[in-house]
From TrEMBL:
This is NOP2/Sun RNA methyltransferase family member 7. The lineage of its organism: Eukaryota, Metazoa, Chordata, Craniata, Vertebrata. Belongs to the class I-like SAM-binding methyltransferase superfamily. RsmB/NOP family. It comes from Papio anubis (Olive baboon). The active site is at residue 439. The gene is NSUN7. One of its GO terms (molecular function) is methyltransferase activity. Residues 696-706 have a biased composition (Basic and acidic residues). Residues 537-556, 582-608, 690-717 are annotated as: Disordered. Coiled coil: none annotated. It holds the Pfam family NSUN5_fdxn-like. Residues 194-508 form the SAM-dependent MTase RsmB/NOP-type domain. InterPro entries: MeTrfase_RsmB-F_NOP2_cat (IPR049560), MeTrfase_RsmB-F_NOP2_dom (IPR001678), NSUN5_7_fdxn-like (IPR049561), NSUN7 (IPR042620), SAM-dependent_MTases_sf (IPR029063). PROSITE patterns: SAM_MT_RSMB_NOP.
Length: 717
């Protein structure tokens, strides 16, 4: 029992008016409480659990500065304290008491509770957490429910605080005046106040369990419940949700909807899971680096929901998710039950800690990506209570956040641990990528650790070194692009998200291990990705290496069906061109005297020179024989009497050779046909060229010349 020499003395001094005036000077919140529901207190079990949490995270002081002694014995806990809602309330109450520990201890001393009462040391933590709630309720009496089970220790402490109500309110008012603060909220460090402000507006993030439900079904379910899909949930008081821009399976809800959401079936059935966005960014980065059958090794996962999310994203692959560091076998049944409820089937748990796992462990030979989520200061987190509950971080996490910072010595210790884990991950020779993610904004834990690890000396392994790779996540704003210029993905703490740092290290490809196209196709066919496609044909380049340079025609005929058709077409066109050339040159075989030829050529040169449509070779004096005439515009080949080169020029797709008129046909006729046309006394084919005035008398052109010139072209096969 608590004994107080002045308990009866102060019990009759209660004056509601005095208490009202004092409490108006000692509000625990800097914001107006208008419109907020009246606080009625917590169940007894919440006070007990909060006291035990505070006992483990309280700030210990030196012997010269100790004002209140705390015992080492925890209070007896109850079964209902294991409920998640009770845990959240208990952690919030313990964290609030921790932030105001110095102020609350000063109030207890100033109100003469400790000098005038004999309080067991193991109840000191319970007095601190209940005093914080007492002043937060403006020293109003707690409302108890009828079916609530009372706890004797809680009842004793509550009676003590009620007996010192006026003195406690007066001591609180003096503390506020001493610090010249509007409320004790303004006594907190500025970093803590900003953190609380961000936490009050921070949205809720939840990822969709696509093994149990599709995103469209989730949208429809929420719409039936009155939720509307919007682009942004910021500063929205209605029932709305939005889809995250970085992760397609993550939804965003306003923070005030938390109590409503946890009671719907989507969350009860593990179809929607609350989790910090930084963890979703990490698993999506891993997913972008995976092949179909690559395994993943997860280190320091914290929350099992992160493991489940990774498993859900790789459910359609043959990948396995290895999780290391689960040493307690007592957790196995609970974990298996959780994973079964969530539909996860590809998770394997390793007992060893990550540092003790050999890099050549036979179980991890297919691990290609390592996800490293090291323990960090978490100075980018706005709501540490939610982060601890979701990520199962150590309660020391709360102590650092209660003071708005972390000591330099502790920061160096964390950075060294992070460096050791990252360098150990880089020793796994089969791994091709490491994803390093923290929820801190301290460069000592982020950029400095990664850059130092990249300088890790080579151990002599015949593997390529790691290099820093750009983010694989989409950059959705100009600010994100600016923050990622050095290949690091960063998100600063804001009113919409916690701080986050993400780095991707990938191994450079070994030039000696270059995979051929044939191997890639064979691997794809083995996975069933090339159904109906034959892979037995070799490439044209490989065939050319096997054939000699003198057997080009034979190599072309042994290629695919298209090349065979092209070869056949070329052969037929070569024969047709040769026959056509012989037919056209027959009218020029009779002997001509030199004077006639010279006069004719001079007349043509004089009349054709100013016409722009005449080919350049026609402007020169024509030689006496057709074969010599070829040497002016075709590459000379003296060993052949007739060389058919024009068919090579028509090896084009059909769409490039449609000739709908005789004029188009004439534009593609061999050049020797033009010459034969000019030596004729009378042109048979109408052209834009002028008719020569000099010709042989009595000579008539043959009809076969006209038929040869107007011969229709052969269509492409």
């Amino acid at each position: 029992m608590l004994n107080s020499t002045g308990e009866l003395e102060f019990s009759n001094e209660e004056d509601p008016e005095i208490i009202s005036q004092l409490t108006s000077l000692a509000l625990s919140d800097g914001k107006s409480s208008a419109g907020a529901p009246e606080k009625t207190g917590y169940p007894d079990s919440v006070y007990v659990m909060a006291a035990n949490i505070f006992q483990g995270i309280r700030i210990e002081k030196s012997a010269q500065k100790v004002l209140i002694k705390y015992g080492n014995e925890p209070l007896r806990s109850f079964s209902e304290s294991e409920d998640q809602s009770f845990q959240r309330l208990s952690y919030e109450l313990a964290f609030s008491a921790l932030k105001y520990q110095d102020i609350l201890e000063t109030i207890l001393i100033d109100s003469c509770i400790f000098p005038s009462t004999t309080i067991p040391d193991h109840l000191s933590s319970l007095i601190i957490v209940m005093l914080y709630d007492f002043q937060d309720r403006k020293f109003q009496t707690r409302v108890l429910s009828d079916n609530e089970e009372s706890i004797s220790e809680v009842q004793e402490v509550e009676n003590l605080l009620n007996s010192f109500k006026i003195k406690l309110a007066a001591a609180l008012a003096r503390c506020r005046i001493k610090h010249d603060a509007l409320s004790i909220y303004h006594i907190l460090p500025e970093t803590v106040r900003k953190q609380e402000l961000r936490a009050s507006t921070l949205p809720l993030y939840a990822w969709i369990n696509t093994c149990k439900i599709s995103p469209e079904e989730v949208y429809n379910n929420l719409k039936r419940r009155g939720y509307n899909k919007v682009k942004s949930v910021l500063h929205v008081d209605d029932k709305v949700f939005a889809v995250d821009q970085h992760c397609y399976d993550v939804l965003i809800f306003p923070s005030h909807l938390k109590n409503d959401l946890i009671n719907i079936d989507l969350f009860k059935d593990y179809k929607l899971i609350f989790q910090d966005k930084s963890r979703s960014l990490a698993v999506h980065s891993v997913k972008a680096l995976l092949n179909m059958d690559d395994d993943i090794l997860m280190v320091n996962t914290g929350s099992w929901y992160t493991v489940a999310h990774m498993s859900i994203l790789t459910n359609s692959n043959t990948s396995k998710v290895f999780v290391c560091g689960v040493q307690s076998q007592a957790k196995d049944p609970d974990l298996k039950t959780l994973f079964t409820k969530m539909g996860c089937k590809n998770i394997e748990i390793l007992r060893e800690t990550f540092i003790n796992i050999e890099s050549k462990d036979h179980r991890l030979q297919k691990v290609k990506v390592i996800l490293l989520l090291p323990r960090c200061s978490g100075l980018g987190v706005s709501n540490p209570v939610e982060f601890i509950l979701n990520e199962h971080e150590d309660t020391e996490f709360l102590k650092d956040h209660s003071q708005g910072g972390i000591s330099v010595d502790k920061l160096h210790i964390l950075a060294q641990q992070q460096y050791e884990q990252l360098t150990h991950a880089m020793k796994f020779t089969k791994a091709q990528a490491v994803v390093y993610c923290t929820c801190s904004v301290c460069p000592e834990e982020n950029e400095a650790v990664v850059k130092k690890a990249l300088e890790f000396p080579d151990l002599g392994n015949k593997v390529q070194p790691y290099r820093l790779s750009p983010p694989v996540l989409p950059l959705c704003s100009l600010k994100e692009i600016q923050l990622s210029t050095d290949k690091f993905f960063r998100m600063e703490p804001s009113e919409i998200t916690n701080g986050c740092f993400l780095s991707i290290l990938t191994r450079e490809r070994d030039p000696s291990e270059t995979v051929s196209v044939k191997d890639v196709l064979a691997r794809a066919a083995a996975k069933g990705l090339l159904d109906g496609i034959e892979l037995g044909k070799s490439s044209k380049r490989e065939k050319k290496k096997k054939k000699s340079k003198t057997s080009l025609t034979k190599a072309a005929t042994t290629d695919n069906g298209i090349q065979m058709k092209i070869a056949e077409f070329l052969n037929r066109e070569t024969k047709a061109s040769a026959n056509l050339s012989e037919t056209v040159t027959k009218p020029s075989l009779p002997q001509k005297n030199t004077a006639q030829v010279g006069a004719s050529s001079q007349t043509r040169k004089h009349k054709l020179a100013p016409h722009p449509a005449v080919p350049t070779f026609m402007k020169n004096t024509c030689p006496s024989r057709p074969r010599e005439r070829h040497t002016h515009f075709i590459r000379p080949r003296p060993e052949d009497r007739m060389v058919a080169l024009k068919p090579i020029e028509i090896i084009l797709p059909p769409v490039f050779m449609p000739f709908s008129s005789p004029q188009g046909i004439r534009s593609r006729m061999p050049t020797q046909h033009l010459y034969c046309h000019w030596v004729a006394p009378k042109p048979l084919v109408p052209t834009c060229l002028p008719t020569p005035s000099l010709s042989r008398k009595g000579e008539k052109p043959k009809d076969d010349t006209r038929s040869s010139l107007l011969r229709p072209p052969r269509r492409w096969l």
